[in-house]
Amino acid sequence: MAEQEAPACTPLPEPLKSLWQSLDGDASRSWTCLCYDGVLRSLSSDGAVMDAIGLSEKQIAHLHTVFPLPEGFNKFNGVDGTTVPTERWMNPAKDLLPAPMSEEGRMKLSQWQQENPDVVTAQREKLKHARAAARRNIREDPGLYGRVAYEKEMRRAELPFDKAAN
Hints:
By secondary structure, this protein is mainly alpha-helical. It has helices spanning 16-22, 57-66, 86-90, 103-115, 117-140, 142-145, 147-157, 161-164, and strands at residues 30-34, 39-44, 49-54.
């Protein structure tokens, strides 16, 4: 049986791309997931929440046009992450989070990072620029990105530049 070619990565359309890229996290050490409460969270390899933002019902539906859900899967029906209190974004119920990366997985990732420092540095630099552009987009067009994202970015913009630029 011939091997099937992996599908190409589907680029996220705006406004989802900027919302996704605006989350804090290290591209080489973190990953992002949309939890069942409608909050998009950036997680470290050990499962700690690094950053989060609530998505509206419309944004969640838009995300699922890009990444379709299995037929009959309805855990996101009627979910609106913008109604989740912001203190719960960073401290969700444990059953909302996926399992953390295994110790073996973390060791493999660490080894790969040590063997490929140029790639890791390039990923981090690319993410830093993408994150800055995404945050600028959100601040400049609150209508497109939503009130919650706009307010979060305005609070972040009040931080000293070295903390806001992370």
